[in-house]
């Protein structure tokens, strides 16, 4: 993510500098995060790319290799960071992330608590949503994961918006210093119901909590606990269906050439030999859309609830 400098954050047209993090785009399913280092090189199937040639170019530029191949140099947005980060744990992807940010009602200036930092995929999107004056406090019980996540946030320029803690939220709850200050809380825990009493103390009046769970039994147990102090309890499952858009050659009869969608289904005509010579089928190029063969299925259940007003 670009550093949140007020003079630069509204534009991706600033020039790439030595030490910046860039997303090198080879194709839609092949990207990598590279730290620009004057004197270093990137080698891939398209050739050798010198980092020195990247410095001074705006984000989004096409970079040429010594062989004439090219890649694109993109700014590290949270969406792209989700696609290139190291998977230390299972991560949330864009479909779930966008839904979480919207339903948690996160806007600039919010204070958000997150338990289950993991690889930091969601954390970067939360940070962008609260910028420039908000903050995300994220907790993970695993010290090494927390350290690696902290390094990643430093690398992608988000450290000023994110503080990483090592703490077992299921066993200890959130620190009391955040009592009554959080606008939203996100939980990605094996037993989220154990943390819900602490969540109720952390949230402001009318604050919202979200719990991500892969199993419906976890959802049922959490909802039982939520009923004590929360209202407006809802659970969602986000299923994303992508489409492939391709150009293909199809056969079109003469009588259907004027139709933008071709003819409607009908019983196949039986042509005589003379008719076949007269009314032949013509091949033409057309754009076709069809569901992707590799459709992602279930990721997890998102359970939202609002702290009941006293």
From TrEMBL:
Annotated GO CC locations: nucleus; tRNA (m1A) methyltransferase complex
SUPFAM superfamilies tied to this protein: S-adenosyl-L-methionine-dependent methyltransferases (SSF53335)
Cross-referenced CDD domains: AdoMet_MTases
Top-level taxon in the UniProt lineage: Eukaryota
EC number, as in UniProt: 2.1.1.220
Locations listed in the record: Nucleus
Annotated ranges, domain tRNA (adenine(58)-N(1))-methyltransferase catalytic subunit TRM61 C-terminal: 69-306
Single GO MF annotation: tRNA (adenine(58)-N1)-methyltransferase activity
Pfam family, one: GCD14
Catalytic activity: adenosine(58) in tRNA + S-adenosyl-L-methionine = N(1)-methyladenosine(58) in tRNA + S-adenosyl-L-homocysteine + H(+)
Binding-site residues for S-adenosyl-L-methionine, renumbered to this chain: 119-122, 140, 168, 188
Keyword set, alphabetical order: Methyltransferase, Nucleus, S-adenosyl-L-methionine, Transferase, tRNA processing
Predominant location category: nucleus
One GO BP: tRNA methylation
Membership in a protein family: Belongs to the class I-like SAM-binding methyltransferase superfamily. TRM61 family.
Name under which the protein is recorded: tRNA (adenine(58)-N(1))-methyltransferase
Species: Asparagus officinalis (Garden asparagus)
Taxonomic lineage of the native organism: Eukaryota, Viridiplantae, Streptophyta, Embryophyta, Tracheophyta
